[in-house]
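Input sequence (358 aa), recorded before submission:
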Amino acid sequence: MDLAPGGVTDVALEKGPHEIRLTPGGSIAGRVVDRDGSGLGGMAVRATVDRAEDVWWTRYVGHFGAPTAITDAEGRFRMAGLAQLAHTVSVDAPGGWLRPAPQSARPGDAPLEMLMERSHVLTGRVVDAQGEGVAQASVLVTWTTASGQSRQTGNSTGPDGTFALAAVGGGPLQVQVKASQAGPWPYKLLTMTGVQPGSAELVLRLESSIALSGVVVNADGTPARRGSVWVRGSGPRGSAQSSLLRCDLEGRFMASELEPGEYLLQAMGGERGAVAHEVTVHVPATDVRLQLGRTWPIEGHVVSGSGARYTLHFLYVEGGERKSTGHGSSGSEPFLLWVPTESPGTLWLSVEATGEYA
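Predicted structure, token format:
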């Protein structure tokens, strides 16, 4: 029967029996083809309702799976009994094929054409200038499908610098290599175009380049193992640049893709409560040392009603300048406040009541 799903709302169980009226359903049809226009049989095509949260019964029906049709020998499909709503139509990709981009359709629309493309394998190795494999490099592959859409896939290299991508388009491909995780990365961004899949193993050789390097240390001079450095500035072409560099276990940081120019560095992290350190440098710059400031912990407890809210304000003097820091809590909780100053000196404490809990 070609009937659409339906349901009722505001059901009172004691007032049954209840009547559910089903309305005539619609259908979505189309054809799955390859790049030559030949029909592909045996392909599973699914239709799911767009914005199903707007219609409660579509969520319920969704628990039992989306309507599915299997293409015939000519690649044709038809899904009947659909509600008069917008649907997303997708094709499951069996081995050796790439999943085509989903299409949107409503029952009664013109037949769809779902274009499938063969998948290919791309293997290779990322090496440095000496030919040694580079581990943890991110290899990103981009190509344009026969329907004009851009697709991407990627993976990280193994300990010996090798990689394998099994679901790649037919080319030509653009292959890009960059760091797969934040941290020291002493290489330039590599981009190679016109690559054809399925050929001999691809060798991607990286060029060393260090535009900025240095170390972040705690107030006592030990490496800031959990440190990080915000880099903000602009190169000679006026393009604003901002990036976050993670430190390694020795507190070292490195950046390779910065244009020459003036940049503001802000070191953060390290020991709990450490104060950020800012410095301006001219790139290229190496052996930059950033030392996090010292903080002093202030612990205590405010005696008040159990439901009272309050805000603590600590005032202190640093470099002849009066500064403030605050902490909000309730009367039932102790407080721990880190005062960011090299020497605590004299502190002034004020307590401000800010309301009560309901």
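Checked by second reader. DSSP finds one helix and 28 strands in the chain.
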